[in-house]
Each structure stands twice: as structure tokens, then as C-alpha cells.
Amino acid sequence: MMNDSESGFDAASYGRGIADLYDMLYPPTPDCDRVASALAATHPGGTVLELGIGTGRMGLALARQGLKVHGLEISEDMIRQLLKNQESADIVVHQGDMSSFDLGIEFDAITCFSDGLFALPSQAQQTAAMRCSAAHLNPDGRLYIETTWPGVIPHRENGEPIGARNSDDSHFMVTTSYRRHLSQECVYAHSIIGPQGIRVVNEFFRFAWPSELDLMALNSGLKLIHRWSDWGGGPVPPEPGRLVSVFALDQTSAR
């Protein structure tokens, strides 16, 4: 498998390339508040850690629901943008890698939204992120991992465009991708066209099938307790689009 140094990609490079435009390209949607409301109903007033909090699109929605929010983020650029976005929210921000963090705190819920786990480039690192999460859950805590069903991850074998996004009157983004089936890797090249010219930002995914997630969880002292098609707890259809996997500590294994 191609590693970070071979690909020229590192975990913070996406944030460096897109942090200043992220909120314009991916603005908050009503879904953010619906997801936050569902989590707040399950963990009222609880303490939540968001892995890969980015500029705070979901973290701010969680804080508005009265949850005590901590965010883990590796990119200094994303953190700077998050601090600008905080307004009156009191999010505790930790800079670090989700595959190797030790905050000395236990949480009621740990969340990883929008394929955040897939941004880690190897199975070992994804497993390490689950292991770190298990070490930070209180005995009744839950780990929520939102992923795309790998069968519907958009891609083209030869780098043809797979999508376009018009953020406003000044910026337009075209995305191309390459997928390596055997190594379960997908590399996206986002070409952002704006007044200052063209900026290309690369995004790396190492996707995993649900059965692999469950095995990584098992090896991390966790067990699957729910798998939904949405944050409302919907059943998983034969060909799902997105999945929400909910894990709890496996009390029969050593932490």
C-alpha cells in the first residue's frame, strides 16, 4: 500500500489546502442540526469528542444542543478557522492525530462524521483510532462512526471528473478521482477555480467495508451495537448510501 511519504500526502495537507474555503464549499445544512439533536437526545448534557472537527460545522451544532463539546483536529489551519467560527460556543479544541491521542478524559460519546475515519491511510491507523477512542469512553459511552458504503463511493478509474460544486458566484470546484481496489484507496483531486486562479487540493481515503470496521472494533475492545442508514436509526437497506455504526465497550475484553 502506498504510504503518506510515497503519495506526497500527509494527514494535515487537506486542511492546509482548503481551510480558508471549507465553510464556503461545504456550508452547514439543516442535517447538521438534526444529527446534533439526535445525539443530544441520547446523551443529554453529555460530554462529546468529535474526531476531525475541522472548522466546526458539526461541533457548533452539537454545542447548540447543550452538549459539552471537545474537538480533535490535526490541522492548524482548520483549528484557526474553527476558533473564528466559535462565536459564543465553548468548544475545547485539542490538536492531535486521531490515531494517537491521549487526552486524559472520558466521554459519553465520541463521533467521527463524514468518512473521517477513512482519511487515515492504513488499516493499522484506523484500528489505532478505534483503540484510542475506546480508551476515552466512559463505561456506558458510545462511539459513532459515519461512513459511506464503499460500493457507492464516487470514482472513475482513469481520473475523469466525478462531480462539481458551485459554492458562490466566485468559486467553482471540480473533483476527479482515482481508485485502487486492492488497497481500498481513493484519491480525490479537488480543482477549485476562483478569482486568484486554480487551486488543487488532494484528499486521500482508505475505505473499509462494514465487516472490516467490526473486526477493527473487536480488536480495539469495542463491539457493534447498532448499524443504521441514518442518524434517525433507520434500517440498513440492501444497497445503502451512508452508514452510521455505533460501538460500545466490550466489557468482556480488557481495555
From TrEMBL:
<dbReference type="InterPro" id="IPR029063">
    <property type="entry name" value="SAM-dependent_MTases_sf"/>
</dbReference>
<keyword id="KW-0489">Methyltransferase</keyword>
<dbReference type="GO" id="GO:0008168">
    <property type="term" value="F:methyltransferase activity"/>
</dbReference>
<dbReference type="GO" id="GO:0032259">
    <property type="term" value="P:methylation"/>
</dbReference>
<dbReference type="Pfam" id="PF13649">
    <property type="entry name" value="Methyltransf_25"/>
</dbReference>
<dbReference type="InterPro" id="IPR041698">
    <property type="entry name" value="Methyltransf_25"/>
</dbReference>
<feature type="domain" description="Methyltransferase">
    <location>
        <begin position="48"/>
        <end position="141"/>
    </location>
</feature>
<protein>
    <submittedName>
        <fullName>Methyltransferase family protein</fullName>
    </submittedName>
</protein>
<keyword id="KW-0808">Transferase</keyword>
